[in-house]
Amino acid sequence: MLRRVRQSLRQVLLLMARRPDILCGAVVLSVLLILAVKFTCSRAKDVVAAARPPVRFFSADAPVVDLYLGQLDQVERLKSMAEVSFIFFYAPWCAHSMAARQEVTQVAKKLARQVQFVAVNCWWSQGKCRRQKRFYHYPIIYLFYRKFGPIEYRGPFVAPYIESFTLRVITPLTYLPTRAHLKNFLTKHESGVVGFFQFNSSPQPPGYVTYLSSALQTLRRGKDFHGVVRFGVVTSKHVAEAVSLGEDETVYLHRRFNSSLIFPRKKLNFTSEAVCKWVFEHYETVVQWLVPPGTKSRLLEDELTKGPALLLFMPHDPLQSEPSFADIAVRYHSCERSSVDDRLPFYTSLCCRSVSVPESRTSACEVCLRLSGPSLPVSSGCSHYVSSYSPFTQFSACCKTVEPQLNESQENDGITGLHCRTNRTLRFYVLDIGLNWPLAERLGASSQKNSSVHKGASTEGDGNRDWSFVAIVNLKYEVHYVLQHNPDATLTESLETFIRNFSSPHSHLQRHLVGEDDRKEGGGGGGADPLEEQHQKQRRLITELTTSSFVSSIMDHQKDVLLFYYTHWCGFCSVLNHVLIQLARLLQGNHTITVARVNVARNDLPWEFMVDHVPSILLFPRHRKHLSMKYPTDLPITLPNLLRFIMQHSDSLRQANGSSAVLHAEFLALQHEVQALHHARQRLSQQLAQLWRENRQLKFDIRGIEQSLERQMQEKSRQLAEALKRLQELADASETLLNENVLLKVLLRALRDQTEAGEQAEADGEEAGQEDGRRAS
Q1: Is residue 635, in this structure, part of any structural domain at all?
Q2: Terminal C-alpha separation, the chain
Q3: Which residues form the domain of 305?
Q4: What's the confidence (pLDDT) of residue 117?
Q5: What pLDDT is stored for residue 1 in this prediction?
């Protein structure tokens, strides 16, 4: 094989030596090949620049150990140096991590002596944290109490919330040395868990560690973010007897409205998981804090589907005491202390149910059940009202006037036990208005700045009322009510009146409607909307209605109102805009007809004016507003159809003969224009069809020519290949002849040399013979 390669190389070198032009071509081709390979390899290399080494995420003066290289192994060493550790996992590019950095720094400066604060860069590709942890979002906060953990923080990344949660991890148990401390601990509205452990026999009883782990377990499960359940510990038997605790290592769950419970150690294992599960299954709460998770969730929907909810938006500081709003909720649920008197006449009898009379707001009827029958005498007693009828049961009804006393200020016990005296029960929720302002604005906070969002001098007992906003939401009936604050009453009195009005079967509360005007007021005047500027001309032709202007506009008895219902996300509504504009232009001279539209997605409307789908068109004739007509759903929304619809149901067009004639003439002219456009469209369609056929024929011709050229090119290529093959054969034959010619020349030279040598030898022999003859003679 090597011999063949050498022979081929020798032949190539001989050929290049005889033909220098081939040598130059080979050199040029080699250079081009090298350049192409080099360019291709350079494009295939990784051109992404190496990541810059990470730097400190926290400032140098922050009391936080910043492991910006992701040294996860250092975390365990730092955790062992403190009783409570605060681990902050971050990504340096994450905006949420950057925002939380300032909040964590504030907390660290306050609690640096009690907590070890550590920050770990979990995004650095060469760090151990990135390789060992699998986080799907940043930042992540873990807290460790000694060896217990991790306890993940799931609240908002705001300094007071983080500090409050950290303090609860630092002190998961509240020490109750006296009965006064125990009473103060149990009088708060949150559920209280008390553990009785005597430290006489040993410095740490066996069950105490389990009880401590139970308190931490409630934080770890993430269900007790705002401290709904508090854990206390009693070491004195005298103090424990105040809640009937006599045995050591007993866990007591205090409940306000039902019987308090003691953990059944004979039925359940005394473990932290069992105690935590038992507490969450049996604890009571009257006020629930709602905290947004920061992502899409159905937290609010899940709570509102349970029934009517009273939402109190207020500024919240987790480090301060509970709001006075909790006392109202406690009295609302305190059924055993409810007084049965004449203050609420429609609740005084257990066998009567109040029915409001539609004709009058101040009258009510009571339907009562009497325990009497054919064989039973009439009894003065009664039972609870039943929902089913029986032929052996007699009912009686009485009607009387009820004073509208629910709208007046009453004493504090006016709502005591109301939870058990009405079918319209409420759930109480508190939200931080700073974190949930968009929701408060959607419920009408912007439009109620002077009444519902309290911005005045606070009165005693009202707490921080300057930014409070109260609303009752009934998701089942899709209504909500907003508290209209009385400046002469305190917030507590206003809340009680608001709750009583909602609970009353003949309530004076009105459904609150939120429109675009309210949102613009809450937006702070951030500049004009670009869409408003683009449609200025359209606005002059079409009246844009909002919640505040809706009823007064459509109920104008001097005008016919054609109302177009639409939403900004409806594609069909956008398509019909040009039809509505053309209609408004035709009716522009008629001052008795108004073309209006309303965005039902941004404006709440009274139920009687709502539609079941968009787009929808309604006509409200003048002097006959109660006989509004809906545009037929099976009829296409076109300009001629809209004109026929208006002329058929509008009195103004029928009475105005001159205007009607002009409008009819314009309508006929428009019909002729439409017909002309239709004929032009048909001619254009025919021309387009002819052009399409010609274009298709041209494409076929081009394809045929391309195929013919391709065949000719293939034939020429084949002929050129054959010519090249013949030339190559001639070149090989010429090379062979040249080689043979060289060999012949060599042979001829050898023969010539041999002949010359022979002749020289003969000449030398003859000379030698002559010399010998000469000597002989």
Answers
A1: yes
A2: 70
A3: 286-336+414-443+467-512
A4: 94
A5: 55
279 in the same domain as 179 = yes
Please name which of 4, 3, 22, 25 lies closest in space to residue 13, comparing C-alpha atoms. Answer: 22
Cβ atoms of 646 and 653 closer than 8 Å: yes
CATH code of 234's domain: 3.40.30.10
Asked if 178 and 310 sit in the same domain, the reply is no
What local confidence, expressed as pLDDT, does residue 527 receive?
46
176 & 276 share domain: yes
CA 25 to chain centre: 68
Same domain (yes/no): 134, 224: no
Q: Which of 285, 310, 345 is the last residue of a domain?
A: 285
Question: Which residue did the predictor score with more confidence, 165 or 286?
Answer: 165
At 327, which amino acid appears? D
Q: pLDDT tens digit string along 507-528? A: 778 888 877 665 555 544 444 4
Do 497 and 573 belong together in one domain? Answer: no
Which pLDDT band, with edges at 50, 70 and 90, does 295 fall under? low
- 290 and 426 both lie in a single domain: yes
Write the DSSP symbol of residue 138.
S
Q: What is the pLDDT of residue 47?
A: 58
Does 150 map to a domain?
A: yes
Does residue 78 belong to any structural domain of this protein?
yes
Whether residue 181 is found in the same domain as residue 198: yes
Q: Is-contact 442 466, C-beta < 8 A?
A: no
SS3 428: strand
C-alpha count within 13 angstroms, C-beta hemisphere, residue 634: 0
Percent of the chain exceeding pLDDT 90 equals 12
Question: Closest by alpha carbon to 76, among 118, 137, 126?
Answer: 118
Which pLDDT belongs to residue 517? 63
Angle value at C-alpha 761, between 756 and 766, nearest 5 degrees: 125
Q: Which of helix, strand or coil describes residue 399?
A: strand
Which 3 state secondary structure label does DSSP give 588?
coil
Higher pLDDT, 382 or 313: 313
pTM value is: 0.63
Q: Give residue for tokens 């109102």.
A: 561
Question: Residue 174: what residue type?
Answer: T
Question: How high is the pLDDT of residue 453?
Answer: 43
Provide the CA 376 distance to its chain's centre, in angstroms.
64
Q: Is residue 498 part of a domain?
A: yes
Last residue of a domain, one of 614, 638, 654: 654
If asked whether residues 426 and 327 sit together in one domain, one would say yes
677: exposed, middle or buried (Cβ count in 10 Å: 0-12, 13-18, 19+)? exposed
The encoded tokens of residue 63 equal: 């009391």
- Phi and psi at 138, nearest 5°, equal -135, 150
**Sole residue written with tokens 């994450």:** 94
Cα 283 to Cα 260: distance, rounded to the nearest angstrom: 9
Structure tokens at 440: 């408060």
Q: Is the pLDDT of residue 219 over 60?
A: yes
Look over the chain and give the mean of its residue pLDDT values, rounded to a whole number: 76
State the pLDDT at residue 300: 82
pLDDT recorded at residue 141 = 92
Kindly tell me if the per-residue pLDDT of 255 is higher than 60: yes
Please give the tally of structural domains in the chain: 4
Residues contacting 482, CB < 8 A, separation 6+: 443, 444, 448, 452, 469, 470, 471, 512
8 A C-beta contact, residue 291 and residue 435? yes
Provide the pLDDT for residue 416: 80
Query: Residue 443 half-sphere exposure, CB side, CA atoms within 13 Å?
Result: 27
Q: What is the pLDDT at residue 343? A: 35
Give the DSSP letter of residue 226. Answer: T
| Spatial distance between the Cα atoms of 671 and 657, rounded to a whole number of angstroms | 20
Q: Name the percent of the chain in helix, strand, coil, to the closest 5.
A: 45, 15, 40
